[in-house]
Amino acid sequence: MPSAPRFLQLSDVAEVLNTSSAQVYALVRRGDLRAIKIGGRGQWRVEATELEAYIERMYAEADRFVADHPFVEADSEGPRQD
What we know:
Blueprint: E1 7-9, H1 10-17, H2 21-30, E2 36-38, E3 43-47, H3 48-68
Antiparallel strand pairs: 1-3, 2-3
Helix pairs in contact: 1-2
């Protein structure tokens, strides 16, 4: 039996991502984070591997953003006065 659960509740995912359950629900409903709906009440569950894949995609997206928008140090003398 594995020590970590295969599937996580949205509240568990929210804790890992340090965000709200509502935000995780929105990620699932938009299709950004793959999940399954189980049971008669349709409770959402996210497989741990899907959460890791989502995190990796977000790192790649952040890397692309940083590459496309390099950080420029502000001029140490302050704003130009023309």
